[in-house]
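Teaching assistant here, posting this on the class forum so everyone can see the example we discussed in section. The complex has two components, and the goal was to see what a joint structure prediction looks like when all of them are supplied at once.
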Amino acid sequence: MNRQPFPSAAMAATAVLCALLLAVAVTPATAEDMQPMAADTVAAAEELASADAASRGEFRSLDKDVQDLKKEVLDLNRDLFLLEEELLFPANSQVAFFVSMDVGEYFELDSVQLKINGKEVANYLYTEREAGSLIRGGVHRLHMANLKTGDHELIAIFTGSGPHTRDYRRGATLNFDKGIGAKYVELEITDRVQKQQPEFVIKEWE
Amino acid sequence: MQLLRAALTGIVFLLLAMPAAAKDKREPIVVQDVHYGEVLFHFYKEDYFPAIVRLLAARDSSRVENHLKESELLLGGLYLSYGHHLEAADIFERLLADSVDQDIRDRTWFFLAKIWQQRGYLERSQGALGNIEGKLPKNLEREARLLQAQLHIDNGEHDRAIALLDKWKGNTEWSRYAQFNLGVALVRSGRIAEAQSILSELGDIDPWNEELTSLRDKANLALGYALLQDGQPNAAKPALSRVRLEGPFSNKALLGVGWADAELESYERALVPWMELRGRDLLDSAVQESMLAIPYALAKLDAVSQAADHYLNAIEAFYEETNRIDLTIDRIESGLFFDEFVTDDPLDSTGWYWQMEELPTGPEARYLFHLLATHEFQEGLKNYRDLNYLYRNLDTWQQNVVVYGNMLETRRQAFAERLPRVEEALARADIDALVDRKLEFDSLLNNIEESNDWLALASEEQFEMWGEITGLENNPALAADIPEAAEVRDKIGLLKGVLQWELEKDFKDRLWRIRRHLRQTGEALVETQRSRRQVDESIRLEPIEFDTLGDRVYGLAPRIERMKAEVGNAMFAQQQFLSDIAVGELSAQKQRLDTYTIQARFALASIYDIATMSEAAE
């Protein structure tokens, strides 16, 4: 057996080692705490030889193009968003209804039903994530409508869990005057600490 | 990635919350403009694209005047969360210098450095790290140091990486990673002995979680192969033997242990780990290599016939595997893989944090597993996915804009149809004549009041009665001087007196009521005049408004069309880039199989030669 039917171990080791050494500098992608991050670790660990400088350069060039496109499409979306609003809800007749929560200790929101002049116009069921967004200070645009100038009646019915996780259903009413120009109405859920009960308030914004 | 998300969201929140008097206590965000709150709602929901669009629109239409400064920072944070990192950096570079506390500024630079390192913007990443002026929190400080070491390694500055990591002490997860990186940097610099001491220690730790267990395996594997390459098979074996038998690195470890024994010419021992690899997934290069290593060892042990069988099996297996790879390459080159990848993608989840939850189900998934785990491929896929989102977004707008165009035309048509009827009705309604009549009534009422003309305000019934009474009063028959006539005259006088008394009694009240009605009529007339002016204004302005909106609708349509084409081109380029990487990787696998096949054939030929020569000799 003079011929070597297969290369030596050192040669095989070189190939594997090269692949391994390209996978160095694993950084646990933890940020604020020290939890492990399997995905990032595996990602770094499995980085292969293909990630060379040339392809990195190409990636960057493409990434730059994507970034530029994102900016242009976002600007276009802004223009379209404003156009859509002006077209569908002209300022003279526009009324927007918003839902907000302050603290939310005594009430877990499930849904809000909205009636304008006795007619149901919205019935929105909140996901856990959306309810969470409200608690953190987000304001949800529940409904947009076109209303004539003059008096209108708004009824909002809130359902959810009240204190001691009991089913809770409360209504709030507002008679409002729609003048010329857009009008914003905020349905606000607040905590009445003294009574340990939620409170539902409707506020008008001009 | 989940934690990076939480950290970035936290940073944006910190950027927005105003510092309070006490250190590290920040006032919650108080929403003073509902539209700002609406942006926050989408931000907290992690719907970054709609949040950015709403914020841009709100800023453009002056709806966030009470949050001007925060809205700029929020925009930066949203861009960062959406993966629009260059735009985010522009905002932060402009705003962070003087408007934000140093600790938040430093954290923001740290996260930008991290994102840029992942996206291959190494100079920017280094620059961002350089912008950190103060001391980061301890955990971020550790991560920043590792990031800096990574940047040194990326730039080939191994000595600097070693110097940075060498001082790292302790038994934390971070220190273990630093230890691993240091060991690898030393191997790269050819300082095997130093690397051995560091990687050996790491390879012998008692890990407290899966990630560290995996790191320990990797350290042992790296060390084992480094020693094998350095010609130290005896030293390599213990390290390789410490790798778990069922972990992701076990195949390579088993192969390495076999090679270490083969180097020591213990071919029987080498066969043990190599035989273990036989039943494993042929996709792994270690398994492929073992299919040649086994007959090599058998040949060394003079089991030539068995060796020949193994070589034949290997050739067959490599052939089948090569065919599968060819099919996969075809599928990737056809674009099917990428089409399927984005087909079921929801339109509402974009952003930096996205990562593939599940591997694609096609036959290519097993080959692309490694690729999908690399930053470059993942980031490329993210971009592809983002582009697909933009394309679908533009597609939806394109359809909407057609509808808006139709809507506008319908409104224009309806206006044109109604206008003559409205103008006719307006012409009929002579408001000026009504005003004149109202003024005449005013004047008449004034005269009635001045002259105390109580009869003028009598009711119809009273007026008729008054007429009848005065009619009777003037009847000539009653002028007769007879008692009956005198009696009737008295009665008429009494009736007239009573009626006059009633009319005089009610006069002021009636006067007041009529004045009130007239005042209300006047108000209604003023309102009608105002409405009329509005109607006239609307008639004048509506066509102008139609034209303005029409210009916008029809002006945006070509912009959408152009952007769609550009996004489509970028998608194609991105797909091509990803396809090139994937096909390159698969071609390399195929090339390796081809090489193995040639080696197997060569070895087989060699065995046949020997057998033929032996037979001839006999």
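For the discussion questions: Chain A touches chain B through 92 residues (CB under 8 Å). Residues 1-5, 7-11, 18-51 of chain A have pLDDT under 50 and may be disordered. Think about how each of these relates to the inputs above.
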